[in-house]
Amino acid sequence: MAVEFTEENFDELAVKSDKVVMVDFWAAWCGPCKMVGPIVEKMATDFEGKAVIGKVDVDKYGSISAKFGVRNIPTIIFMKNGELVDKSVGAVPEATLVAKLEALMD
User: Fold this and answer.
1) What CATH number has the domain bearing residue 12?
2) pTM of the model
3) Which of 53, 73, 83, 94 shows its CA 20 to 30 Å from the CA of 33?
4) Cα distance between residue 26 and residue 13, in whole Å
5) How many domains does one find in the chain?
6) pLDDT for 23-52, tens place per residue?
7) Count of CB atoms situated within 10 Å of the CB of 17
8) How far apart are CA 105 and CA 58, in angstroms?
9) How far is CA 18 from CA 13, 25, 70, 77, 83, in A?
């Protein structure tokens, strides 16, 4: 299951992680987010223990979105060693996200 990132846990679970982190910025009212959501949940299960995969509700935690310059949703960012290293904007196929994640895990 995907981690729900909040302002309280983001630094600890994402920035300080020793694993690659994938963060889905989404909102309940966003149609494309609803298409990406199940993909993110599946990947969280598939990569459990190998990567940290979670979600940020932009309506609740706008400060995290602002920190990464997220202006459109869904936006998925990839972090390694606490740094933003890749990003994907809009609804994209699972294969695209898996390829990006796996490339960073090498």
Assistant:
1) 3.40.30.10
2) 0.96
3) 83
4) 18
5) 1
6) 999 999 999 999 999 999 999 999 999 999
7) 16
8) 26
9) 9, 21, 23, 16, 11
**8 catalytic per annotation:** no
Q: In what order do the strands lie in the sheet with 83-89?
A: 3-4, 51-57, 20-26, 75-80, 83-89
**Catalytic hit among 2, 3, 22, 30:** 30
Radius of gyration over every alpha carbon of the chain, rounded to an integer in angstroms = 12
Which is the catalytic residue, given 14, 33, 36, 53?
Answer: 33
**Type of residue numbered 68:** F
Domain that holds residue 45: 3-105
Asked if 58 and 65 touch (Cβ cutoff 8 Å), the reply is yes
Across the strands, what pairs with 3? 54
Verify whether residue 30 is a known catalytic residue. Answer: yes
The three state secondary structure string of the chain is: CCEECCCCCHHHHHHCCCCEEEEEEECCCCHHHHHHHHHHHHHHHHCCCCEEEEEEECCCCHHHHHHCCCCCCCEEEEEECCEEEEEEECCCCHHHHHHHHHHHHC
